[in-house]
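JOB MANIFEST
job_type = single_chain_structure
chain_count = 1
residues = 137
[input]
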Amino acid sequence: MTDLRITAGPFVFAARFERALAPNTCARFETMLPYRERIIHVRWSGEACWIPMGALDLGLGYENATSHPAPGQIILYPGGVSETEILLAYGAVRFASKAGQLAGNPFLTIVEGLDQLRPLGELTLERGAQPILFERR
């Protein structure tokens, strides 16, 4: 089952909410749909792209937070040591900032289009920011 369509650059993915792992994060993000932003390549974390959200306070705490999301996992860092952000893993990741290792809530998993993750990451690394849209299916 899929809950969302994610269009990132020229690529399209289907994703499901991880309600059992991060119910509050899923519920909060759902209120933000459709969510349109841009992704950029990470600086510290490895093979991932991220959406910086600055000082935005989403009123969330940690829910099954991880520092090592698998390819296709999307995590939300609720802020604190570093800025609020969403991170989309496409390869090996050790989630971090200049302040050190971080952990984010795994709230979405890509279930269709996994073969397009690495090309998205490489495009973002080589060409810069890409538009991204999260919308209900």
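[summary]
The CA atoms of residues 77 and 104 lie 4 Å apart.
The chain has two helices and ten strands.
exit_status = 0
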